[in-house]
């Protein structure tokens, strides 16, 4: 086992040069947590331009699930690149997308026949889901229900579903019409000010009683789009019965369920897809991030009878790129052969135990939640309100101590390391995180 090594206080001089040029040349429409400049990665470790070595607790935002530069994935990329880089799957045919589709229809929930559409990103997978859902009903159902607090992407259709931070939507109206938002089941901060389980899952009843019976005709709703665990919104895990009740409601009115597994899928929670924890089979599943271990690729997998848009109505020049598909096949094989689902569950349970022990000791840790290696640690003020300043200080101190970890929601630490991480490596990171929170508390009023 290795450990982080900080040779030069970050960001060092080489990193600072790139930071300056990045600021000058690249549109700064994204918010970075701290100035880490990556040079190379191997397994769960990353190195910056100045030779500092870091433990990775975010996997490139849930992308490098099998670790950085896994030899099997790298070799698959090399082999495919020597044969064919591109020839547009939506106009012609080649083998790797078909081989990958064979795997995807097997590992996604549901024993029913399925089809796959390839994209380049999570946002594009959501865009495809919107079109497939509305197109399936041939325009008869224009409405889509999404959840406040969820994130589905920043392209205009996906952004119309996104509702995790105002800055993501500010200045871009009008967005795609027909999207109705309802509260996400955030039990730690229930938007209805109720307590689970006494609430009897009012968050589901609300959809029927106050949306479908008041102002949105249920026969005009095409789909309910959800994240099985709200990622950007704060790594929020719904209560056990929530998705079963949501499925019952959707079936009652013939509404499709669209499962956004962009961040939670491909083994992140110890299952191939997070919705499997609830035993519900969605009609459509949006996939991206971890599917190709770092190469741009997304997919929409759905019931065959729903994936029936007419020829010419939707396509993607780069979707299903042969090199990305080869990387994805290799990544899925690694997860299977190296038993990473089992490792994710085992190491995730160990991390949750340690984090809950920290919670007992540190009052500023208000909530610990998650499944597998998708874990959120919510930091709070003395009055129980979110503490974004403490979050930022904690992450900055952790960065300067050799741990790369970022936030979600208003004040939640999001822990999402590569699925290959060992218990020993997890303990190294948790030790740094513990010390970082303690030190940040000394510096935060």
Automatic annotation (TrEMBL):
Reactions it catalyzes: L-ornithine + 2-oxoglutarate = L-glutamate 5-semialdehyde + L-glutamate
Leading EC class: transferase
The keyword Translocase is annotated on this UniProt entry: no
UniProt keyword annotation of Transferase present: yes
Cofactor(s), by name: pyridoxal 5'-phosphate
Assigned protein family: Belongs to the class-III pyridoxal-phosphate-dependent aminotransferase family.
Protein's recorded name: Ornithine aminotransferase
Organism: Infirmifilum lucidum
């Amino acid at each position: 086992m290795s450990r982080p090594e900080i040779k030069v206080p970050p960001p060092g001089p080489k990193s600072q040069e790139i930071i300056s040029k990045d600021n000058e040349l690249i549109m700064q429409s994204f918010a970075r947590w701290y100035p880490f400049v990556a040079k190379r990665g191997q397994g769960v470790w990353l190195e910056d331009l100045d030779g500092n070595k870091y433990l990775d607790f975010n996997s490139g935002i849930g992308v490098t699930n099998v670790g950085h530069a896994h030899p099997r994935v790298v070799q698959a990329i090399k082999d495919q690149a020597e044969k064919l880089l591109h020839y547009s799957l939506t106009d012609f045919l080649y083998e790797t997308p078909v081989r990958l589709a064979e795997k995807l229809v097997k590992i996604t929930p549901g024993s029913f026949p399925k089809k796959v559409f390839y994209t380049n990103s999570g946002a594009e997978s959501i865009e495809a889901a919107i079109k497939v859902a509305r197109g399936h009903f041939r325009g008869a159902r224009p409405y889509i229900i999404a959840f406040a607090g969820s994130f589905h992407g920043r392209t205009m259709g996906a952004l119309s579903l996104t509702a995790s931070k105002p800055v993501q939507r500010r200045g871009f109206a009008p967005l795609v019409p027909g999207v109705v938002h309802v509260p996400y089941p955030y039990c730690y901060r229930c938007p209805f000010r109720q307590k689970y389980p006494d609430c009897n899952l009012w968050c589901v009843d609300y959809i029927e009683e106050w949306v479908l019976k008041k102002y949105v005709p249920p026969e005009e709703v095409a789909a309910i789009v959800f994240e099985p665990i709200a990622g950007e919104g704060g790594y929020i895990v719904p209560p056990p019965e929530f998705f079963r009740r949501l499925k019952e409601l959707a079936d009652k009115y013939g509404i499709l369920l669209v499962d956004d597994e962009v961040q939670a899928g491909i083994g992140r929670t110890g299952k191939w897809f997070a919705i499997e924890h609830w035993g519900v089979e969605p009609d459509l599943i949006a996939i991206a991030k971890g599917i190709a271990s770092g190469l741009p690729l997304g997919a929409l997998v759905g019931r065959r009878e729903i994936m029936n848009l007419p020829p010419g109505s939707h396509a993607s020049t780069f979707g299903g790129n042969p090199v990305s598909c080869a990387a994805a096949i290799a990544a899925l094989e690694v997860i299977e052969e190296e038993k990473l689902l089992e490792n994710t569950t085992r190491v995730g349970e160990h991390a949750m135990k340690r984090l809950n022990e920290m919670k007992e000791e540190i009052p500023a840790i208000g909530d610990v939640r998650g499944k597998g290696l998708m874990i959120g640690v919510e930091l709070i003020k003395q009055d129980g309100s979110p503490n974004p300043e403490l979050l930022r200080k904690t992450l900055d101190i952790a960065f300067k101590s050799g741990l790369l970890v970022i936030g979600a929601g208003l004040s939640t630490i999001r822990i999402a390391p590569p699925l290959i991480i060992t218990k020993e490596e997890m303990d190294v990171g948790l030790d740094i995180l513990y010390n970082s929170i303690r030190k940040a508390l000394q510096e935060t009023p």
